[in-house]
Amino acid sequence: MFEQLGLIGCGLMGGSFALALKRAGLVKRVVGYSKSPSTTERARQMGVIDVAAPSALLAVSGADIVLLAIPVSATEATFKAIRHLVGPNTLIMDVGSTKRDVVDAARRVLRDNVGSFVPCHPIAGKEVSGVEYADADLYSGKQVILTPIERTFTVQLQKASDIWTALGSHVVQMSPQAHDAAYAAVSHLPHLIAFALINGIAGQDHGKDYMALAGPGFRDFTRIAASDPKMWRDILIANREELLEQSRIFQRTLQSLELLISSSSADALEDQIELASETRANWRLTSQKLPK
Fold first, then answer.
1. Cβ atoms within 10 Å, residue 282
2. Which residues contact 283 (CB under 8 A, 6 or more apart)?
3. Which parts of the chain register pLDDT below 70?
4. What is the pLDDT of residue 284?
5. CA torsion angle for 55, 129, 228, 174 (degrees, to 10)?
């Protein structure tokens, strides 16, 4: 059991982690800080945190485990704010959707204590944000990707793995580089496409009329377009190199399908649709295979 969780960012992800940790009996006390005092106070009222801290540094004071649940663009500034209280016995984790930029920030700021930091990416979330949506079950049955570096302390890596496993998550390890390449393809590009699709339709003269006629397929395909704008702005920019490469691959594939359509190449078009259909039919969400 940990004595104190220092929670920096008391929103959906951080709040859910605190609730899950409390329910599992893994922490005695949670001290939280958010940029918005009203968010921190709301978290306290809900019992997500026990004490509201006026700064990130004071949230970390006395903590043996720290979670950064903040926009990835705020990571370096947050490390700078708390670095004086980070020691070799402190476990620091984050929940950012990109990892190379977060790791680079940790190397620059934490320096000799960078081994205390275990970069994490829980593959979990909702289309809504805010501590009022915090859910102790958010991470149960979900994948959590750990991306340790060569300087990550073995003991802290094991602690991180044990914590997420205790919360019901399926823990996977990979390098920060491999993580960002993979999630550019399966997460960041789909969001980019969803944003572009919605804006492309809505920007037409009769776009609203078209959307009024849309059915469940459109709803399911565009669900992620309702995601938090600031968070996704940061993610897309942070992973821009990998994302733009995946976007170029997508555009080439789309153009090849357009060519088949324009030339009325029915058989070839059907083959490509069948290939996609079979690939999608044989894919299964990893979390669905996990025991509850």
1. 7
2. none
3. 286-292
4. 84
5. 80
pTM: 0.88
Q: Could you write out the DSSP letters of every residue in the chain?
A: -EEEEEEE--SHHHHHHHHHHHHTT-EEEEEEE-SSHHHHHHHHHHTS-SEE-SSHHHHHTT-SEEEE-S-GGGHHHHHHHHGGG--TT-EEEE--S--HHHHHHHHHHHGGGGGGEE-EEES---SS-SGGG--TTTTTT-EEEE---TTS-HHHHHHHHHHHHHTT-EEEE--HHHHHHHHIIIIIHHHHHHHHHHHHHHTSTTHHHHHHT--HHHHHHHGGGGS-HHHHHHHHHHTHHHHHHHHHHHHHHHHHHHHHHHTT-HHHHHHHHHHHHHHHHH---GGGGS--
Helical pair 37-46 and 12-23, crossing angle rounded to 10 deg: 30
What is the residue whose two structure tokens read 């809900």? Answer: 46
CA neighbor of 149 nearest in space, from 172, 171, 173, 175 = 175
pLDDT of the residue at 289: 40
The torsion of the CA quartet 106, 108, 113, 115, rounded to 10 degrees, works out to 50
Q: In this structure, are residues 120 and 144 in contact, taking their beta carbons and an 8 Å threshold?
A: yes
Plot region of 162 (φ>0 → left; ψ -120 to 50 → alpha; else → beta): alpha
What's the pLDDT at 286? 61
Q: For residue 42, what are the CA distances in angstroms to 6, 11, 18, 123, 249?
A: 17, 10, 14, 25, 44
